[in-house]
Amino acid sequence: MPRKTIVTCALTGVLTDPEIHQVPVTPDQMADHAEQAWNAGATIVHMHFRDQSPGLGRFPSWDPDVALAVSRAVRDRCPQLLQNFSTGVFGDDVSGPIACLRAGRPEMAALNAGTLNYLKLRSGGQWAWPPMVFDNPVEKIEQFLETMDEIGIIPECECFDTGIVRSVAMFHQRGMLHNPVHLSLVMGVASGMPANPRWLPLLVDEMPAGALWQVIAIGRQEVWGLHRRAVELGGNVRTGLEDTFYLPDGTKTGSNGALVAALARTVEEAGGEVASIADTREILGLLA
Questions:
Q1: 3-class SS at 266?
Q2: Predicted local confidence at residue 288, as pLDDT
Q3: I need a surface site. Which of 20, 111, 155, 171 has the fewest CB within 10 A?
Q4: What is the spatial distance between Cα 226 and Cα 205, in angstroms, rounded to a whole number?
Q5: Do the strands 154-159 and 108-112 form a parallel or antiparallel pair, or are they unpaired?
Q6: Quick one: pLDDT at residue 240?
């Protein structure tokens, strides 16, 4: 029988300007896009939160009232849909992300599991933004894990590079992570792992036994072959306006629903079956 494949939708991302790209910002917009994703086959939505002040929707917010408003709007619209909050923050002050977790109490949350030089070059050799370090030392990771464990949130270890995948295995050996370990392979960031399907078997070999994993593919048309290979190897998949604006035929979209629908077709073409919400809860070990 085809393996059940969980499809996640990342609704909006961090700094994408809503004046340029059609990304959702307000609670109602986030609920609209979550409903699109749900109707197309996603059972989990990954959420960042944006400043709700007029004209400032391109900037992130760690206001727990904003997180709660978005979370409630999505739950009211799609009560069965599982929520996954971002916790990615620069620096050692984790009070904002932790306050958002306590306010919204999602089923899952991203756990950035290692440090990365976050870089990108423009075609002329100039930095796309000033070089920055996305710092995630062990002490910071432990603070998030303590809160997630207390609330009952499943940590999803985001891995931007191969050493981070191997670090997750050490966290598991040390007892910081419970079975099954959840990993997200973030592939396509310019200074991290490339969106190259040939990397996947090697990365899977470095994971703890029995780990659940998904691919987060950043890019354009190259992401679809990566998703296909992930399904073939038994992984789960994620798409959404945080990760790409481009459908398999190269068409640009502002619709999370269209991206999820395309990914659902990719899952089926690769021999998988899109997981229902009941399937997803069973795979994740969540009680209905």
A1: helix
A2: 59
A3: 20
A4: 17
A5: parallel
A6: 98
A 10 A CB-CB count for 23 gives: 26
Closest CA to 65 of 98, 32, 100: 100
Residues in the chain: 288
Please state, in angstroms and as integers, the Cα–Cα distance from residue 135 to each residue in 88, 112, 255, following that order. 10, 9, 32
**Residue with structure tokens 């072959």?**
225
Strand pairing partners for 216?
A: 186, 238
Tokens of 138: 């062990």
Instruction: Give Cβ neighbours of residue 259 (< 8 Å, ≥ 6 apart).
Output: 9, 239, 240, 241, 244, 247, 253
Mean pLDDT (the chain, rounded): 96
pLDDT at 126 over 80: yes
Cα(282)–Cα(91) distance, integer angstroms = 36
pTM, full prediction: 0.97
What is the spatial distance between Cα 199 and Cα 188, in angstroms, rounded to a whole number? 12
- pLDDT confidence tier of residue 2, bands split at 50, 70 and 90: confident
- Distance in Å from the first CA to the final CA of the chain: 24
Reported confidence tier of residue 287, pLDDT bands at 50, 70, 90: confident
Triad 265, 271, 277: Cα angle to 5°: 65
**CA gap 136, 21 in Å, rounded:** 29
Task: Tell the CATH superfamily of the 4-284 domain.
Answer: Aldolase class I (3.20.20.70)
Domain borders along the chain are: 4-284
Torsion angles phi and psi, residue 35, rounded to 5? -65, -40
Q: What is the pLDDT of residue 62?
A: 97
Using omega within 30 degrees of 0 as the cis cutoff, is the peptide bond preceding 54 cis?
no
- For residues 75 and 68, give the distance between their C-alpha atoms in angstroms, rounded to a whole number: 10
